[in-house]
Specification:
With 437 residues, this protein is of the alpha/beta class. The chain contains 17 helices and 9 strands.
């Protein structure tokens, strides 16, 4: 065993020496820096823990093998070197009653089936579904992209706690106990708007759900529940937790970001916060100013081109499918005129960009340690920053990390190593719990 350990140590040193740059980042030319960063980007496994989906994009006729207007699809992942996308089984809430739970379960069922369809029927030669960290590495080594499944909002579980095991068996590897609105399991961060709470943290059913997730190897996600619920969750969980798409509240004071008290408890818990590239969570004020200026310019262009921009009230009155369709049309129109908009406003009101996003990573690394920090986008759910606005631009995040002096080992940890380490620990603890029953 000692000889094997010595061999592995020597091998690690050789690999480290081979990948270490001969010059410092500051000494490199632009071309040398690009080549060095691209090498790192190609070698590490890049993993994004939050990509929303519409099941209408998972059909035989329209699917992720095509370069759709979605921020994530296979061509964009391949172009930008994004290796792993966690596709999200998200369900909005209606009433906390059996009818609401039944409709939510149907929605979740539809999204589970869509993700499996992509990996098993539509494009099994280009993407595979991973259930473990070993699966991730194996599928990536085969030259394919990797899909994983997260559940945003446990609302579809209803009051049937056996569905936690069912969802695990269907591939779910993390789940949040609420979304925007208090669920049957947990209060939401949205209670900060009006100080109205349903459970003052977790419900009894929520505490039961935590035990079930620990038992069946599902990582518990802190990104939408209230602070009180999150603190109690971390006290109760026998396994590390994650925040699948949240940033640092000390850097931008919004309820969806984690404050230092939650971050320090997450560090003690052994978990990881997946820093999210969501403009209004990264820098609300900068985003507000840029958006106002953009809207002014967009309105001028829309009037000139005859494109109708829907006001907020009209947008809210749409059905879910109508909203998604309009959002795609709006995004396409905005993309078409992107250069003109940027020329007119970026100098006076610059957008939230990759550098602003990595500022949050820097803060989190300094606050809780690099082993507790990861990356997420919230693509196709409102996420994206200038420079990383879809999967095709993923390299820009690695480049920014390189510019700031992060080593290849550290970048590997941030992109995927930390999250996969937590998954391993959660699954090992689940085996132990099951063995004790």
């Amino acid at each position: 065993m000692k000889l094997r350990l010595n061999f592995l140590l020597i091998l690690a040193l050789i690999i480290s020496a081979c990948s270490a740059p001969e010059k410092s980042v500051e000494e490199m030319t632009e071309a040398e820096l690009m080549e060095y960063a691209q090498g790192i980007h190609d070698r590490v496994i890049t993993l994004d823990t939050h990509c929303d989906i519409r099941t209408s994009n998972f059909t035989e006729e329209v699917n992720y093998t095509q370069r759709l207007s979605t921020q994530v699809n296979l061509p964009k992942m391949e172009e930008g070197g994004l290796d792993v996308a966690w596709f999200i089984v998200y369900t909005g809430q209606s009433g906390l009653d059996e009818d609401g739970y039944a409709r939510a379960y149907e929605n979740a069922d539809d999204k589970f089936k869509a993700i499996h369809r992509l990996c098993e029927e539509i494009a099994p030669d280009r993407i595979g579904l991973a259930l473990t960290s070993n699966d991730v590495r194996r599928i990536a080594a085969e030259g394919k992209k990797v899909a994983m499944i997260g559940i945003e909002n446990a609302y579809p579980v209803g009051t049937d706690i056996s569905r936690v095991k069912e969802f695990a068996e269907r591939g779910a590897r993390y789940m949040s106990l609420s979304h925007n609105g208090h669920s049957q399991f947990s209060d939401s961060n949205t209670g900060e708007r009006d100080s109205v709470w349903l459970h003052n943290g977790l419900s009894d059913l929520g505490r039961e759900a935590i035990a079930e997730m620990n038992k069946w190897g599902i990582m518990i996600d802190l990104s939408h529940p209230s602070k009180e619920a999150n603190m109690e969750t971390m006290k109760l969980s026998k396994a590390p937790v994650i925040a699948s798409h949240s940033s640092a509240r000390a850097m931008n004071n919004v309820s969806r970001n984690l404050d230092d008290e939650q971050l320090m408890m997450l560090k003690e818990n052994g978990g990881v916060v997946q820093t999210v590239a969501f403009r209004s969570y990264v820098d609300s004020e900068k985003n507000r100013v840029h958006r106002e200026k953009s809207n002014e310019v967009m309105a001028e262009i829309a009037e000139r081109e005859g494109f109708e921009i829907k006001p907020g009230g009209m947008f809210r009155a749409m059905t879910g499918d109508q909203r998604s369709k309009y959002r795609e049309e709006y995004n396409a129109f905005q993309e078409k005129h992107k250069a003109e908009i940027a020329e007119k406003i970026d100098a006076i009101a610059p957008p939230v960009d990759v550098a602003d996003f990595v500022d949050h990573i820097d803060y989190l690394v300094e606050k809780i340690g690099i082993e507790h920090v990861g990356i997420s986008s919230d693509f196709d759910g409102g996420g994206g920053v200038d420079g990383w606005n879809d999967a095709s631009e993923t390299f820009n995040v690695t480049m920014e990390l390189v510019k700031r002096g992060y080593t290849e080992e550290q970048i590997d940890m941030i992109w995927s190593g930390n999250l996969l380490r937590v998954l391993d620990e959660v699954q090992e603890i689940a085996k132990q719990i099951q063995a004790e029953d």
